[in-house]
Amino acid sequence: MAIMTRDGKELLPNEKIMYISCLMMRPSTIMIDCDSAAMDDFTMRLLCNEEIITVNQDALGKPAANIFRTDSWDIQLSLSGDL
After folding, report:
1. Which of 3, 7, 46, 50 is the most buried (most CB within 10 A)?
2. Residue in 60, 71, 56, 58 with CA at minimum distance from that of residue 23
3. Per-residue pLDDT reduced to its tens digit, 41-51
4. What is the spatial distance between Cα 38 and Cα 82, in angstroms, rounded to a whole number?
């Protein structure tokens, strides 16, 4: 995956797990910018993993809203009460 490189090298499997898990913890739309046909099987299975996707999904189906923003970070709150 193009977004999952480090110094022109692909991330190791454990690095991909950490990277995707951190992306999923943020309550926002999941967007992956790469050619899915060129994706290796491990990465495709990781992105389709129900446990990983569940981390991102809100029970009410509502996106989180920014409640505080600085130049370097945002705090988002979802209607389900998850931060």
Report:
1. 46
2. 56
3. 998 898 888 88
4. 35
